Amino acid sequence: MMEKLAFYLQHPFVQYALIVGVLIALCSSLLGVTLVLKRFSFIGDGLSHVAFGAMSVAAVLGLTDNTVLVLPVTIICAILLLCRGQNTQMKGDAAIAMLSVTALAFGYLCSNIFSTSANLSGDVCTTLFGSISILTLRKEEVWMCMVLSVVVVLFFILFYHKIFDVTFDENFARAVGTKVDAFHFVLSIIIAVIIVLAMKLVGSLLVSALIIFPALSSMRLFQSFKGVTICSAVISVICAFSGILISILAGTPVGATVVGVDVLVFGVCWCLGRLHGGE
Amino acid sequence: MTILTANQLAVGYDGKIVCDHINFQVEEGDYVCIIGENGAGKSTLLKTLLGLNQPMEGSIVFAENLQKKEIGYLPQQTIVQRDFPASVEEIVLSGFQGKMGLRPFYNHKERKKAKENMETMQIADLAKKCYRELSGGQQQRVLLARALCATERLLLLDEPVTGLDPRTMVELYQLIQKLNDAGITIIMISHDISMSMQYAKHVLYLGHHSFFGTKEEYEKSEIGKKFSQLQEMEEKE
Predict the structure, then answer these.
(1) What is the ipTM of this complex?
(2) Under a CB-based contact definition with an 8 Å cutoff, are residues A240 and A24 in contact?
(3) Which residues, listed in sequence order, are joined to residue B60 by a DSSP beta bridge?
(4) Are A221 and A272 in contact (CB under 8 A)?
(5) What integer pLDDT is reported at residue A48 of this predicted model?
(6) CB A164 to CB B150 under 8 A?
(7) Which domains does chain B have, with CATH numbers?
(8) For A226, which of B90, B133, B146 is closest by C-beta distance?
(9) What CATH class does A2-277 carry?
(10) For residues B112-129, average pLDDT
């Protein structure tokens, strides 16, 4: 087995997949803590559907690099969803649901009507569940992913306390003069970028798993914000790394395997939390 | 010294006025209780004072030497906070947010001050504890300690004793009184008229005809008598 692994690891496309997978997992888990705590777990799901819709349109238009269309559209939707009054939670809920199904339906409709591809359901399935796109990364994409990850991680380190403050108590943050709206603006751009990147790894249906599971797992184990954030990053990286390796060895789809490992770890954390807390 | 004056102020949100013709002024070291029926606009007024909402009409004038960053705020608890994984220390420290600007980390002085504030609020031993595991009274004291990190002059409290048992309530009132004795100006929304009357120096009643005056003036006024009767009736029910 180790030989097989070593053989695969020699190939640049496997190395790329591992690097990109781990980086995406790291970024999305950092983001996940804030999103889950702010009751925005669904935003990842909604935005990934938007990205799917945009991707279908891009395919119909025959764009070679669909990021040109997908990224701006997703960013705009993220800003629309996150930057209107945070205190109206119920409406936000409905807005996300509405946007996500609309984009999904519209995207599928577009690709169905205007499709030139012989294997439509195969294409759609790939976009929805990722599968191969992570193994077809180009060098530029790997670099872009690395740069973006560094930016995201830096943002989290430099604004860590602000993130905590805005997540824990938005009104208080506003009252003491934190620029909450500007913060949300930046946050929504980052979310959109991560989701578009993460779609390559796990596909649009499974993106939100990458965002919420590590955060939820670490919340079972840790009692402080710092602990939860760090633990969630570690869990996510380990899950992505082992998930990709397993999928290579077992020949399973990458996205589903990574998410599977995430779910498994969540189960373990949940049990540990119960044992420890004695609830 | 007057640190805050509201002139013909009207407050509301989403373009709707909830309460208007509000006039009052707050002196340094004052203890003002804001009372009124549900939906009278008490929280909205507080948010307007904080600059979270814009005044619909009229004006709020702060003393020239009082900066927005010097106002401490104890908001009502939100659902988000109830199961938030954060240690007491982290929350108290976050009170310094406004003073940090773009500096990413807390400095030694702030950590020391946070510790002092935790001691004042008698929660120093809980510093590493998780917020969601604390009792209601402890949680409020954590949030008070955070507000103290943000201010040394003016505290705005939005129903600080809601949901607490009577003994914890009294303890919290005494703590707030202690802060007031130390020279911090208090503006507090309260449902609990009889208790807050014990401590307040001035009363602001929000309603159709708003009233502002000293506690004694309020007790003698028509509005005061009517409102306390109403409260008593509610309590009997």
Answers:
(1) 0.83
(2) yes
(3) B6
(4) yes
(5) 86
(6) no
(7) 1-66+154-166+186-210 (3.40.50.300), 78-152 (no CATH)
(8) B90
(9) mainly alpha
(10) 88
